[in-house]
Amino acid sequence: MNRDLIICLLDTDRHDRDAFDCGELALNEYLQKTASQHLKKGVANTYILVNSAESNRIMGFFTLSFLEVDLSEVPAKYGKKLPRSHLPAVKLARLAIDKSCQGKNYGRLLLVDAMHRVAAAIRNTAGVVGLFVDAKNQSVAAFYEKFGFIPLRDNSLSLMIPQQTILGLFPDKT
Ligand SMILES: CC(C)(COP(=O)(O)OP(=O)(O)OC[C@H]1O[C@@H](n2cnc3c(N)ncnc32)[C@H](O)[C@@H]1OP(=O)(O)O)[C@@H](O)C(=O)NCCC(=O)NCCS
Question: Is residue 57 helix, strand or coil?
Fold first, then answer.
């Protein structure tokens, strides 16, 4: 990763949320109005991408929270010998890059960082079956599939990447 880039928790005293525009109103509004409340209440963490030279300007963000899934939401190959319900998982609840920064691999960078955090959580904190996401449309679903996410059903906009795949991507025990 470029050493000038920083990924850290949203801090409303330092980061300018109002200037952020990814082209999707709902995502902009989540960052501007809700993300900080969720962070303070401890129900979802929003991480932002900034450049150290302009460290108040949010280039992109993602949000992680926990959820429970049923075994039917885990591809059969990865669900063997697991309980039928109440399986712990992580949700990539939001991912967005500012319009001025799209197409420059920052979405990839944030997605890989999110997966790295999940790998570290599995190894150091608590196990989960995988990382789940609801894509906004088929094009964005294709973006996630590029990184190993599996649609839960044919043409589904709900996808997951199994624990086994994530740990395989980060074998260094971080
Ligand atoms: C979707 C989004 C996060 C992608 O981030 P990005 O920084 O523009 O994407 P990257 O430059 O990291 O692209 C990485 C790869 O994914 C591909 N890709 C990017 N956006 C894509 C899309 N919408 N559909 C399919 N593939 C896509 C790129 O072509 C690139 O492929 P390559 O490895 O073959 O070169 C970003 O465009 C965005 O924030 N869009 C608006 C908000 C949104 O839709 N968020 C997702 C909500 S589910």
Answer: strand
**How far apart are the C-alpha atoms of 64 and 168, rounded to whole Å?**
20
Residue to mutate (ligand 1; options 46, 104, 108, 132; most atoms within 8 A of CB):
108
Nearest CA to ligand 1 atom 27: 143
Q: What CATH code is carried by the domain that includes residue 56? A: 3.40.630.30
pLDDT (tens digit per residue) in 88-127: 999 999 999 999 999 999 999 999 999 999 999 999 999 9
**Residue closest to 45 by CA, chosen among 63, 58, 61:** 63
Domain that residue 44 falls in: 5-169
Q: How far apart (Å, rounded) are the C-alpha atoms in residues 30 and 162?
A: 27
Indicate if ligand 1 lies below 6 Å from the C-beta of 21.
no
State how far the alpha carbon of 89 is from the alpha carbons of 55, 68, 74, 127, in Å.
Answer: 32, 6, 10, 8
The whole-model pTM stands at 0.96
106 noted as active-site residue: no
Is 174 part of any domain? no
